[in-house]
């Protein structure tokens, strides 16, 4: 149950292997799901691809409308000696007769297949001469029919063109650009061949990357705990952020491209402002690593202060969701929000996260967090953040946003630490997260001791263990191209980044509490996708679940209900 209503799990809409047997997931790659709409005449154009172990399936996705028919996959493939790890459809070229699907593999290859025509058109990095490590992420470059980007656990990313071959020898590279902890090389050869570019980013595996909605920027998260955001065309580093500790595992952009959310091994979700290049909030709700973060473009709302203006609607964000329509009215309203001369606009961004703790968390990012130095009269504080707007250190004056509990600080002192939001470690969160706004300070401090304790204890424990592989990357101040110098600089103590703008201390940024935090699976969750009438999740057992949005479950006809295995909606 959320403030917008009830999300219902549709048991008959569950996709899995045809035999419905839970997959023994030990040691295998994460289950991933990709969607594409082929715009066929029937109005049922959604197609679904997912990998389970050595298997890859391609189905018609009926969503909230009809029960899943698992006996009829359009295409099914079983691989030997390597496993699919990730995949991506080209939305530009998809038709009812043909789709282009890229599949990355655990041994480093990338395959281009057409599951409708049942063709395998090409295999890239076939001899593993380009990279021998596991493919962690593969995506078509937005707006392109032929370019795609592939990330590996080696920490390298490669730009390919489907038209070009990979050559019969290992590629020779020439340095194109080098910067703080990254380098980009072009491929040196007589005739054009793949890869067109090789990016080396950070230390350790590059776990995921995501293109901004306008396709101009690329956000990468790595095992060294860094988020790095690049201008994709000019190959310039736009900004960086460091996790609280451990590697960052997942990343996503807000529909308007203004915020990036990451999740990782610190069990936190972190919200980073693209414009200000700084952490604006962290969210604590998961009890283990966060495996996927995603914005919900259909619940993200924008409201003008003038009541005559209509508020942000689903349609506004629909195209944006696929990164196509840039000049759209909601986006322009969002950008207007930051300009000083316009009337105030009320903004709430909704995003979700799933983790290895088998829990789904939904979060709201509201006015009081996004614009902390403005009066909170119109803010809707679903986030339950208390006094989250202390003035910056040394600024003096009163806190503008604490609903009357103004805290006065002398000009040169450090502001009082931000209280934790009242998130209890267990499922009590869902009860606490009704609609309470900025809480009374006395209750808050009592409740928040609990949350503070768990976070600080965990921090101490982690420092004792001193994860060597996660602590490999510090902030490199030198732009020296001297490789040796660069390597020694890289091994700085992560404690040096803590308390800097790269990685503010816990008490220096607002701590969000999830709206809901619910255990929804038996095995770790690996998929979270927001569609117009449902949310799709999947776990490592290979079950892909559909959660109907409030009011959308009625789309199912009674006949389909009768035909479904249980006939009930859980």
TrEMBL record:
Polar residues: compositionally biased ranges: 420-436
The keyword Transferase appears for this protein: no
GO cellular component: cytoplasm; nucleus
Extent of Low complexity compositional bias: 400-409
Keyword Hydrolase: no
A Pfam entry, by short name: WD40
Subcellular location: Cytoplasm; Nucleus
First and last residues of every WD repeat: 241-273
UniProt biased composition (Basic residues): 459-472
Region ranges (Disordered): 385-436, 458-478
Keywords assigned by UniProt, alphabetized: Acetylation, Cytoplasm, Nucleus, Phosphoprotein, Repeat, WD repeat
PANTHER family in alphabetical order: WD REPEAT PROTEIN, WD REPEAT-CONTAINING PROTEIN 20
Subunit structure, interactors included: Interacts with USP12; promotes translocation of USP12/WDR20 to the plasma membrane. Component of the USP12/WDR20/WDR48 deubiquitinating complex. Interacts with USP46; contributes to the cytoplasmic localization of the USP46/WDR20 complex. Component of the USP12/DMWD/WDR48 deubiquitinating complex.
Descriptive protein name: WD repeat-containing protein 20
Organism whose genome encodes this protein: Burhinus bistriatus
């Amino acid at each position: 149950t959320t403030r917008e209503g009830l999300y219902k799990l549709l048991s008959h809409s569950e996709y899995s292997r045809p035999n419905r047997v839970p997959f023994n997931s030990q040691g295998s790659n994460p289950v991933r799901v990709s969607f594409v709409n082929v715009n066929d005449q029937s109005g049922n154009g959604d197609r679904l691809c997912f990998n389970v172990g050595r298997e890859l399936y391609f189905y018609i996705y009926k969503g909230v409308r009809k029960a899943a028919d698992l006996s009829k996959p359009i295409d099914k493939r079983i691989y030997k000696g390597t496993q699919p790890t990730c995949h991506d459809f080209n939305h530009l070229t998809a038709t009812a007769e043909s789709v282009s699907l890229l599949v990355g593999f655990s041994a480093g290859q990338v395959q281009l297949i057409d599951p409708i025509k049942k063709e395998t058109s090409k295999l890239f990095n076939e001899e593993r001469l380009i990279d021998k490590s596991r493919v962690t992420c593969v995506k078509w470059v937005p707006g392109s029919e032929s370019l795609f980007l592939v990330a590996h656990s080696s920490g390298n990313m490669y730009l390919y063109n489907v038209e070009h071959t990979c050559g019969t020898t290992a590629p020779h590279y020439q340095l194109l650009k080098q910067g703080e902890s990254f380098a980009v090389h072009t491929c040196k050869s007589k005739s054009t061949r793949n890869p067109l570019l090789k990016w080396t980013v950070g230390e350790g595996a590059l776990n995921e990357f995501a293109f901004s909605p306008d396709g101009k920027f690329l956000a990468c998260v790595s095992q060294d705990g860094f988020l790095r955001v690049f201008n994709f065309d000019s190959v310039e580093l736009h900004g960086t952020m460091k996790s609280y500790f451990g590697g960052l595992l997942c990343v996503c952009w807000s529909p308007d491209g203004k915020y990036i959310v990451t999740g990782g091994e610190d069990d936190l979700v972190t919200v980073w402002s693209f414009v200000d290049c700084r952490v604006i909030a962290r969210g604590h709700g998961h009890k283990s690593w966060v495996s996927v973060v995603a914005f919900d473009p259909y619940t993200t709302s924008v409201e003008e202060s003038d009541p005559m203006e209509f508020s942000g609607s689903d349609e506004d964000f629909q195209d944006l969701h696929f990164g196509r329509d840039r000049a759209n009215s909601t986006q322009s309203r969002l950008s207007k929000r930051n300009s000083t001369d316009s009337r105030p606009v009320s903004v709430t961004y909704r995003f979700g996260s799933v983790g290895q703790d088998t829990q789904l968390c939904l979060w709201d990012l509201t006015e009081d967090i996004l614009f902390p130095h403005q009066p909170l009269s119109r803010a809707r504080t679903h986030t339950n953040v208390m006094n989250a707007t202390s003035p910056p250190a040394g600024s003096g004056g009163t806190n503008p946003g604490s609903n009357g509990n103004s805290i006065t600080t002398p000009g040169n002192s450090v502001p009082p630490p931000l209280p934790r939001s009242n998130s209890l470690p267990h499922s009590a969160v869902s009860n606490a997260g009704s609609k309470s706004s900025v809480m009374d300070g006395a209750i808050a401090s009592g409740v928040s001791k609990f949350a503070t304790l768990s976070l600080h204890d965990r921090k101490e424990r982690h420092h004792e263990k001193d994860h060597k592989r996660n602590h490999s990357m510090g902030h490199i101040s030198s732009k020296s191209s001297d490789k040796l110098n660069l390597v020694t600089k890289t091994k700085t103590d992560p404690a040096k980044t803590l308390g800097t703008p790269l990685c503010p201390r816990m008490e220096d940024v607002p701590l969000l509490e999830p709206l809901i935090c619910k255990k929804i699976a038996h095995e770790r969750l690996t998929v979270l996708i927001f569609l117009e009438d449902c949310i799709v999740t999947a776990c490592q057992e290979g079950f892909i679940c559909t959660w109907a949005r409030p009011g959308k479950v009625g789309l199912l006809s009674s006949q389909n209900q009768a035909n479904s295995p249980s006939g009930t909606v859980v």
